[in-house]
Write the structure tokens for this entry.
Amino acid sequence: MDKKVKDCSFCEHTIEDSRVSHHDEKTVKDLVNRMNRIEGQVRGIKGMMEKHAYCDDVLNQIASVQAALNGVSKLLLEKHMKSCVREQLAAGDEAVVDEVLKTIFRMMK
């Protein structure tokens, strides 16, 4: 039985601190579409390698996938900052700042 401690438009925080994201339908659709495209790109890269495509062409496709993944990360970070983080700060939970910083530093690697 989960009891909510905090509730925002994107994440539910429970006593056990397990979090479930629940984005609006437009955001979910956008993210899923982006991930489907990325998945297709990765399959395409695999096919290029199997066909011994020229290395530079494969590397360019890999760079494209990395850029697409960065775009998904930026969108998720934006939604997180504008909702979950804002609400946690308003509730006095300043530990969320360290959590977000760790995430951003990980994204920058």
